[in-house]
Amino acid sequence: MNSSSKPLIAALNGDRVGPPPIWLMRQAGRYLPEYRALREVAGGFLNLCYDPEKAAEVTLQPLRRFGFDAAILFSDILVIPHALGQKVTFEAGEGPRLDPIRDGAALAELSMNNLHQSLGPIYETVERVAADLPAGAALIGFAGAPWTVATYMVEGSSSRDYPNAKAWALGNPDGFQVLVDLLVDATTEYLLHQVKAGAEALQIFDTWAGVLPKYAFDRFCAAPVWKIARRVKAAYPDIPIIAFPRGASLYLPEFAAAPEIDAIGIDYAVDPIWAAREIQPHATVQGNFDPILLLAGGDQLERRAVEIVEALAGGPHIFNLGHGILPQTPLEHVERLIKAVRG
Ligand code: CP3
User: Fold this and answer.
1) Helix (H, G, I), strand (E, B) or coil at 269
2) DSSP H helical ranges for the chain
3) Quick one: pLDDT at residue 1?
4) Vertex 181 angle, CA 178 and 183, to 5°
5) Model pTM greater than 0.90?
6) Residue nearest atom 40 of ligand 1, based on CA coordinates
């Protein structure tokens, strides 16, 4: 089957597909017992990301179990800082730890010299998954958006409101731009190599896009993501690009109107009826089922899933969550969600 006859790619190309294709953000992960078993033997999360055989297996696990319409490469957004020379570790149960970069001197230590050497195993994962993909399913590659990746690089960990990254971005925008430009270059290279290895669509995760004032969102979220997308499309004009600027709410229609953006991921706080009116004319809409409701289950699970499908049925739509699936989510709830969406 060629890419364009796959439901996910058709929806990304602007077709109304009924029922909508479905995949879930973070679908490969700890809610799956088969993931937990493989992670156990891999010895650490980053080891798993850099082990092409195991990472390919983990990428395909959710498709085997649930028959999703897409696989998303198993990796992490923080492999880019790691490939640029920053120290990155994941402690079990604690999330990521990085040696924080807070000034121009620390920034000058980073370099693209070992980029592809460091990311090589991930390209091999993409090749392996592409060769083993179930018929009809599409392979999505991904990267973090420069702003979101920068927040981890500057804070050194997850944080509630990113005081150091924001202070740098708002207080010394030209200095912060140096970091963002480096991330634009590295991320573009990374995504181009994923496409070369067999990725059929790309998603750019901007998880923390919602914490910036509009002028800084324009400069550090929208402009860098558009630039990456434009450069990828200069080499691969037909590769669809999904942006997920989480929390960007009222900035979304303008963001979606950029010609290089094919689809927008909407979080659970966006009204799907509003998205049908304001975003679907510009881009395919993906989202926005609340992952907490997937965890909770009950009658509301079917009711709210159908409500989203109906709200977005007039244009191109990909069913997904409004953010990543939670590790405690019961497998039966995922099965019920898929059944509700596929009717
Ligand atoms: O199935 C998939 O979606 C593919 C793999 C994927 C992972 N991370 C694997 C992962 C993807 C697409 C990501 C993206 C990612 N990583 C984002 C953006 C999306 C989002 O959820 O907002 C961000 C912000 C990160 C950074 C990150 N990675 C954090 C903050 C953490 C710790 C919190 C947590 O969920 O554990 C991770 C770890 C991580 N990335 C895990 C997985 C499966 C858990 C690691 C483990 O097995 O212990």
Assistant:
1) coil
2) 7-12, 33-42, 45-49, 52-66, 79-83, 104-108, 115-132, 146-155, 163-171, 173-197, 214-217, 223-235, 252-256, 272-278, 291-296, 299-311, 331-342
3) 63
4) 110
5) yes
6) 76
Per the structure block, which two tokens stand in for 165? 């990254």
Residue 141 near ligand 1, beta carbon < 6 Å: no
Measuring from atom 7 of ligand 1, which residue has the nearest CA? 76
Q: Is 240 in the pocket of ligand 1 (CB under 6 A)?
A: no
Q: What is the pLDDT of residue 207?
A: 97
Helices within 70-199 (DSSP H only) = 79-83, 104-108, 115-132, 146-155, 163-171, 173-197
| Torsion 186-234-229-54 (CA) sign | negative
Which active-site residues does the annotation give?
A: 26, 30, 39, 76, 152
What is d(CA 311, CA 280) in angstroms, rounded to the nearest whole number? 11
pLDDT for the residue 273 = 98
Average pLDDT per 10 consecutive residues for the chain, totaling 343 residues = 85 97 97 96 94 98 98 98 97 91 95 98 98 97 98 95 96 98 98 98 98 98 98 98 97 97 98 98 97 98 98 98 98 98 95
Ligand 1 geometric centre to CA of 76 (Å): 6
Q: Determine if the peptide bond prior to 288 is cis (ω within 30°).
A: yes
Return the best residue to mutate from 58, 61, 76, 140 for the ligand 1 pocket (most ligand atoms within 8 A of CB).
76
Q: Rounded distance, CA 208 to CA 198, Å?
A: 28
